[in-house]
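Q: My collaborator sent me two sequences in one message, no labels, and asked for predicted structures for both. Can we handle them in order? The first one she listed is below.
A: Yes, handling them in the order given. First sequence, followed by its structure tokens:
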Amino acid sequence: MIVITAPTGNIGRHLLARLLGSAPAAGERLRVVMRDPARLPAAARGRVEVVTGSHGEAAVLDRAFDGADAVFWLVPPDASRPPEEAFSGFTRPAAEALAAHRVGRVVGVSALGRGTPLAGRAGLVTASLAMDDLIAGTGVAYRALACPSFFENLLEEAASIRERGVFTDTADPGRKAPMVAAADIAAAAAGLLLDRSWTGTGSVPVLGPRDLSPDDLARVMTAQLGRHVRYRRQRLGELYGALVGHGLDEAFVRGLVDMKRAKEEGLDAGVARTAETASPTGFEEWCARTLRPAVLG
């Protein structure tokens, strides 16, 4: 039994589709945990078991993990709480349920940076790494998918790109860094969930095919969208003020700002891209398949 949390999110929907369409998964029982079963894709209905509720609640997890031998764990974004509460606080009931039900393996979505000097002051990333330690401490076999920034973050900029030809972030325009498509993270997760040979704990970097700068992103978007797209760099202080002004939790916003500062200082640069850590989806392909419909309709 494989349990999938957040099955309709950016990663979870790709993972569910991949497992449902995978020959190696043909004999697997799949169970999903979701607040609203009506959002389950039509192709999955009748083929997966649904546990209704939040995967941050102990009673829901007690039902979800019963009989499970593998779990895909993803913490949903929550800007209403400080980072430690948003990650480890949300995950603590799961850690207890994993131990109680003797789940064998867990694959979680986490971040790059473990073992670097920046890991202890990287805000949301620091909180994510602490969540990994909490899960690993239960005794399960655990693999943390160590991810850089997602291409999908740019979907939040779709309206600005459409209306003004501008996307905004805090990175230096020329600073190259790894980026990855959610579908590639899902592919890595599927491979691990179907593989019963691994034990112990560790990280699995998923780095995308090449490093990209904001200027690179602008050039590719301009070509793919057929309209000029430019990058606007936002100061960290400006970002902090804007998000707090919108009512987000101040500690969470500080965690976001600290993460962006750490990334600017090289947090994501500590893992070499190899055949094992690279993933296939290029930004050009992702733009054509995902961003272009979101911007142009």
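Q: And the one she listed second?
A: Here it is, processed independently of the first:
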Amino acid sequence: MNGPFVLPVRDLMHRPGQMREFTLDLALLHAWGEGLVAVPEGTPLDLAARLESVHEGILVTAEVRTRYEGVCGRCLTDIAEPVEVEFQELFGYPGDEASDFEVRDDHVDLEAAVRDSIVLSLPFQPVCRPDCVGLDPVTGEKLTSDVTREDEIDPRWAALKAYSDPADADTE
């Protein structure tokens, strides 16, 4: 069992109370995430993990830092923002109760736990800035917050405008 996220735990196994800390600086081998934003392949990832032996297995507490890239969901401007997540997972010993993560061959593989925590923290509707107003539906140009655009009125409904705005009805 090998890979950048695989950590040895032989000296911790079945020794409750024992602890080790790891710091990993990696570059992602594959992109993580789908949709408007993702963490691209080759992006640096910093991982600080504390592995603690408990009766049920190895408890992993970790902090992860990386960066996502993509486009704004409103105006399609390129964006890149930092991602910082923390997680805690129990890697159970083989043969005990079923768990999502297990200690295998005296090692724990953190890749799935790290990937899941990062991907789940990515914004579903990312924006370049909180007050982004998006694109003009007619011209496709990026709108600014100080621009107000009057909606064009369908000529078939223009006569009804007089009923909705009494000031305009008096001037006609």
